[in-house]
Amino acid sequence: MAKFTDINAYSKNLAAGYKPLPFRFMPLDSEKYVLTNMAGEFVVTDRDGLVEFAGGKLHHQSPAYSDLKSKHFLIDSDSDVALDLLALKVRTKLSPLANFTGLHIFVVTLRCEHSCPYCQVSRANDNRTDFDMTEETALRALDLVFQSPSPAIKIEFQGGESLLNLDLIELIVAEAKRRNETEQRELAFVFATNLAVLDERALEFAREHNIFISTSLDGPKDLHNRNRPRPGGDSYERTIDGINRARAVVGRDHVSALMTTTAASLDRAREIVDEYIRQGFRGIFLRALSPYGFALKTKFYQSYGHERWLQFYFDGLDYIIEMNRNGFPFTEQYAALILRKMLTPFQPGYVDLMSPSGIGIGAVVYNYDGDVYASDEARMLAEMNDKTFRLGNVHDNTYEEIFLGESLLDPIEQSFAPSAPMCSWCAFEPWCGSDPVFHYATQGDFVGKKPLSAFCGRNMAIFKGLIERMNQDPEIRTIFENWANN
Amino acid sequence: MADEQQPDLRLEFDESIHNVDAIKRAAYAMMKRAVCNIRMVDGVLVCELTAASDEPLEGLARDFRREVLDQDLRLSIEAQTEPLRNLVLGLAFSRVGQNGEVH
Fold first, then answer.
1. What are the structural domains of chain B?
2. How far apart are the CA of B74 and the nearest CA of chain A, in angstroms?
3. In chain A, N or C: fewer CB atoms in 10 Å?
């Protein structure tokens, strides 16, 4: 008697056929298609391969069959646990939603001594204390912070220039830590600061309370100072000096920087990357301008289209990839966020790339006057006299009124990508977001017509660009896997 | 009343072969490149396209037809896989408690 069942017995079972699991597809170029499943795993094939698979005609011994089966694009008689595994992956992707709001942004003052024409936040002169948050407002906002069910709470101090109201920051940190003795959350703090007014008191406070520092660095000295004017024209010098002093006190990993792309940046992607390397950063977030605040008023937002920004982005990305090939590890952080969605079961909590939208759920903003906004961009919109995304006020409304009210739930429900036109059939939807604030600001409704949306055009091009690069070169795939998993 | 602007392209699709939803979706997806008027004439779905730019019309026609085919295939896949999709979502959410905890 044979000890093992003959191998042909298994083939017979498989020859009985398969069922495609739910999947979506989009053209990658004129020949190739990207297929994604419900958990955001993907394969690339040509049109014949797509039609053959969708029609149930793929042979079980073909290499494509194994690939599609292992990635939960099909089930056959040999797939007992496939549906459970796929459901587990879907649940893992959605599980951060249960935590609700983790990032709480306190706008402690609108005062700022910079006068950046692209500023996406409105600002007040630095001697106008009537644009400072009061203690009473801060304490009431803290009440709301600790009503969030999130086990991890990050409080970020923004402005204006946040450090111009250090007294209040000190009070908020002390009070939050006191409350956390009983709450026992994973509590973290961030200074969002241009570093121009960073003094020893702020540094020592940051060291004592393990505070992260996030600053702005737009590129080389001439570009940075042109983008970010201040009295004395020395924004770059102060930023670099502040970065070095902060690193010496709070540690290198506690200091990060963000750049913003202006029309003057567009031909200088590589120089900007070089500046970040020169300053000892391990990565860069190549960011476009947002259509809010001073960026609109000063026409900076309209100064370039998303197609031009994409040229800038891919020039910088390819430069960074080349650097990695040559043995210098450096990350483009927007790509890394997306690659984490594409290549791992995890879902980074980046508000713009969340669906349901991350507004209110991923982050919430307490403005200096006690108004609560669904996101930083919602606050910027309000500074342009449009308070559509104002959720309430810390003095007038309860947690339930603010977080379960129609001002938040309507845009989240309406913009939910799996039921939005074009998103619902888009293969890139598992990696994308819905961004109702952007679409409201640019098109006047929460959903937006995606074929006309710069958000959609920009992200779709990046998704395709990343897949093309991975597909063409296994070395790039390895680099991207490192970015996704770090 | 002024005459309506004449369309740049007139494409015909046999209703017995093509799903009208596929044509509507294609028109939506391509709205940046062309405005599409859809009419039914004797069992034929007529799409009148007015280009948004001066791009070559052959390319627009080819891409519109390709988009219709893609959308038709998407609709077939959606219909075919809907029960499994509901089953997977049911399994995924079955362990979420009444208070939203994930078990």
1. 9-93 (3.30.70)
2. 7
3. N
